[in-house]
Design goal:
Elements: H1 6-17, H2 21-27, H3 29-37, H4 51-66, E1 81-82, H5 83-92, H6 102-115, E2 124-127, E3 132-135, E4 141-144, E5 147-150, H7 152-182, H8 188-198, H9 205-220, E6 224-227, E7 235-238, E8 240-243, E9 256-259, E10 263-268, H10 273-282, E11 288-292, H11 298-312, H12 316-324, E12 326-330, H13 332-344, H14 348-362
Parallel strand pairs: 10-11, 11-12
Antiparallel strand pairs: 1-3, 2-3, 4-5, 6-7, 8-9, 9-10
Length: 378
Amino acid sequence: MEHEFSTHIQQILNANFGEAWQDIYDQSPLLQYLNIKTKSAARGAKARGSFANLYAVYVLVEDYLKQNYHQRDDYSDYEGARFTDLFQRQRELPFGSKLQNHALNSRMNEEFRKYFPQVEAIPILRDVQTGRYWINENLLKITLRTQTYNIAHAILAIIKRYVEVKRIAFDEFLKTCERLKSISTESNASVEAFVMELLAPHADARIFEIVSYAILKLYYHDQTVYFGYDLDSIQEEPLVLYKTGRTNANDGGIDFVMRPVGRLFQVTETLDVRKYFLDIDKIERYPITFVIKSLEPVDDLRQKLQQGAERRYPVKAIIEKYMHCVEEIINISILQQRFREIVQQEQTRAALDEIILQSKVEFGYEHEVPAVPGKSTP
């Protein structure tokens, strides 16, 4: 697999191993895995990062080098790194403040097996009882003819470069948002074009969810309903949209919640009917509004869901129950139209403020711009 960041990997390997770099890369499934996981680097802030699995490798290789095992021959006697130390180190790294333990415990190994089923060695070794972890040294040592090369330093350098590229891309994204906040009202067309780009079908799922939330929150903010337990206590209540957590969280199919009506929203980029019905089942078939990252007309999207349901379920009663739970479908075109209405209401700056805020939270930028691992901040 060749992509734009592959050039960075090649440069780092060449700097470390000279003319032998290509043979080393060809013999190393771990380096090839890094190449696969860094393909999003050149796609800017809108592309999903791969920090969890990369950082699981990073902290273990870093520990390996700190103990100078790359210059020794007794790593097999090492008692292993403590999970608490590794986990804390992950969260100290740029974009790592919200990472969970899944990559260290299983997900990195599982994904590695998916890409390299023929490779017997797995990258991360652990003792569940003692909570100790090791990087698989067999994957760090590459033997070519009569010489053995250790790729540990190269692995850290590749991941550092990837983080640096992603950080620069996200900094540019935030700078663009800040710049658009300050432009004059005559430049609303530029603001609209920028947000429309973030709503494009190729945009990263997290960015799409963030922008969708900002648009819908502003769209509903001046709409009201009337609630009361009896006729004498009815009061006017504004519709308020809340984001339930970070994007792509395992939250039972709820991305946004609207008060006081209890309306639920789920953002998705798939038309796999199983995913829709799974979300519906998770919340006991409570109606959901689906925000779909698609330019297809709403009627076509609903028809495709209907056809998918018919292929999966032969019973009409079951199909009808599920389809009845699809309360509304909001596609990209509807989001674009609602953003234009926000622009007309002179709420553009408020929408951008929300996009910036949610982006900072999502990417771990709540407090400060993170430094690249191994580099000091200016």
